[in-house]
Amino acid sequence: MLRGIRARGEKCGVFAIYTRQGEVAKLTYFALYALQHRGQESAGIAVSDGSDIMLMKDMGLVSQVFSEGDLNSLTGHLAVGHVRYSTTGSPFWENAQPIEVPWRRGSLVVAHNGNLINTDELRAELEERGQRFRSTSDTEVIALLLARSEAPDIEEAVLEVAPRLRGAFSLAIMTEDRIIGLRDPYGIRPLCVGSLRDGYAVSSESCGLDIIGADYIREIGPGEMAIIDADGLRFRRAVEERKPSLCIFEFIYFARPDSFLYGTNLYHARKNMGMALAEEAPVEADIVMPIPDTGIPAAIGFSQASGVPFGEGLIKNRYVGRTFIQPTQDIRRLGVRLKLNPLTLDIRGKRLVVVDDSIVRGNTTREIIQMLKAAGARQIHLRISSPPDKFPCFYGIDTAVQSELIASSKSVEEIKDFLGVDSLHYLSFERLVRSTGRSREEFCLACFDGEYPIPIPEGLGLSKCRLEKENGVRSH
Questions:
Q1: In terms of domains, do 231 and 113 share one?
Q2: Domain span at residue 300?
Q3: N- to C-terminal Cα distance for the chain?
């Protein structure tokens, strides 16, 4: 699917580093660049020199927020960085991360990927104790709970607060002299740790380590925290591990294809999904083409397994990023052509197999199909490398509400007719999971089967929709 115009939102990216050999602000900048796909609304970096913390954050892409002069002014040997997923409605600077709050030893900085499902309860408790909030994010709630803890140090404060957090959270926490990476007991959101020179780094994905030359060590386990300070790296159990439930969409779409999760390279997993599609739903065709960029590995796999030649078909404009210039109505009618343009000479008269990772509302997919038809495609056979997306996510992925998910109310045949394709096939549960090299029990598949690993409080979905409409924001 197209990043930036699809219905499904993206998650956030977190990064933290501790090293005395290197400019940590610049290392964090490049790591956030590698994690930019996880969020394009805002970016922030906080740096500590052991006694003071400096924080800089703003709306926009990493390259828009920081100049070389900014990075030169952020001096120290500890840093935490964050990229935030674009919201609907008006963006708010206050929700940009990392979030810094005062605590008795100075300052506390928190960067968060995920979503709590008991935020209202925790926020109300803090408000009753006289706490005022500057943002609408649950990250600030977490930071304030840690800051208000009477534990002797930040490590013990995490042990006190972590069991109270319900939902998905991968956190990078920094004080003046220490970094902690923390993952929720279900491991819904990814987080890993690597080594660099004399120090260590924590990253949402391994690609954030690769770009700065860090050596991957391992994933931080569910309910585990990684503590990095002057004594090095150590791990400690923060909360009892529950059923492993990594979000399956990390494998399908969200994480970069060069990253590793569960010890598996995502490019190869996605190629396996495409090969499985070719076995489940073969079709006579002239070209296999992806909807770029995330459909590419699956399309290559489909081509290799089927023997149908691979072709691009659609060219993506890679310089169309987030813009504050509103298009005119005439330009808006062009829709996806702002980001994609068909190779008419390669499409005209051809039977196409079009491969994508998922369908959410279906509107963008239908626009793309209409564009391919206008380019002269003779047949269009759509193959999706995941099962039908029927249920909303409450753990940090902002899908549409359930009534807006096309597969929640339409059959596959009805979706085929709505999109206007000659055939449509979704990858089966069994072949999707097999493509990852892991077992079904190790994933959260709630968006497909409605079985949420962490029980969702009654009415949360309705309150979430109401909050989005009233405030014009979504949880990250």
A1: yes
A2: 265-317+327-436
A3: 20
- For residue range 29-82, list pLDDT tens digits in order: 999 999 999 999 999 999 999 999 999 999 999 999 999 999 999 999 999 999
Beta bridge partners of 15: 81, 203
Query: Catalytic site residues?
Result: 12
Peptide bond into 244 cis (omega under 30): no
Whole-prediction pTM: 0.90
Same domain assignment for residues 283 and 393? yes
Is residue 457 situated within a structural domain? no
Tokens of 206: 């391994």
CATH number at residue 337: 3.40.50.2020
Tell me the C-alpha distance between 442 and 242, whole Å.
11
- Per-residue pLDDT of 425-471, as tens digits, reads 999 999 999 999 999 999 999 999 999 999 888 766 544 433 333 33
CA dist 62 and 19 (Å) reads 22
Whether 86 maps to a domain, the answer reads: yes
Residue 256 lies in a domain: no
Strand order in the sheet with 199-203: 53-59, 42-48, 78-84, 13-18, 199-203, 192-196, 215-219
